[in-house]
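Not sure how to ask, but would you mind making up any protein sequence you like and the tokens describing how it folds?
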Amino acid sequence: MDKSARKLFNDSFTKEKYENMVLEIQSEFPETLDFRVAESPIFISKELKSKLLIAANDIIDTIKRPDFKTKTENAIPTEYYFNNESEHPDFIAIDFAICKSKEGDLEPQLIELQGFPSLFAYQNYLSGKYKKHFTVDANFSPYFNKLNAFSYINEMEKVLKPIAKNNTILLEVYPEKQKTRIDFEISKTYWRIETVCLSQIYLKDKTLYYKNGDDETRIDNIYNRIIFDEIDRKYPELKSQINYIKIADVKWITHPNWFYRISKFCMPLLKGKYIPESNYLNTFTEYPEDLDQYVLKPLFSFAGSGVDMHPTSESLDKIEDKENFILQRKVQYEPVVEDINGVKIKVEIRLLYVWPEGKAHPKLLINLARLSRGEMIGVDFNKNVDWVGGSCAFIETI
């Protein structure tokens, strides 16, 4: 972490400024901010940035291998397997904990990854709010590849199909209930993409439509934000909708199969200095002797649900579907973000990539960061404390 950029920000910080920033967000997008905004961004030095890029490139090299699809075919549940899969995902998100190496240096360690879009609109918006309300070192940017706030929006448009704005929708399940709904509203502001509920779409001659007021609007492209396996658990009344989406003539951004392929399922396939050991639970004939140094993760879960930070032999023996879990060696988050009282806080950073059609390699655009004082990252583990929540990282550029 960069100490000078941190001091510059902290010297400019007041609780009143923070409250004004949050109030401004709430006034610009009323009743959509449903998660905590952290008081501060994080500031990443060039040295740590280099390690993040090395770690991410090791992962992407595996995803690009010709046998990756074959090795991840079993990740996709039969009922949520969609035909006409794209050659590669349109989006990749990779989460890293910031840790301390044996040598005492800061380094990233992989936590998890997604072949699925994240808060691409909100993160651009939020970084601008930090710069507006506080002092951010001019040599630091939330963007990669020499982008700025305007060129970033143009890069996203290349993936979100600007020629067909009126026929591209953001598809979600009951979007008005989702914690990420502020991102849907900002996406509409940036790219004029309507958010449509799965319950609203219908099929005619293999073409999807939805009602926009009294007008019937054809759907050519779906900016997909549905986590399909949550439908069974939360929204079974909508499961019949999936059957005709499967036969519709529509372009997915990104194709649903990639959500399963690039997920905790593929973590045992990944190797690298910044990738902790992971193995499918059903591959163990004996559990590791240092089981207290491992975390149990279900392959198919979201936002940390079902994670067991303290597995035991007895608890593992009780799991019947061991093929649906991994044991991952624990990483030790290093508290690195210093608040105005000098207390340090844990950090996780998510690198956000797009992968336009016809390109050989994904492009890193922006990031998401989360601050935590709890054992795990996430709102459920950081209640009633400050300087935690959703944030972004500013990366040293010079």
Remarks:
- DSSP finds eleven helices and 19 strands in the chain.
- The mean pLDDT is 91.
- The radius of gyration is 21 Å.
- The longest strand covers residues 344-354.
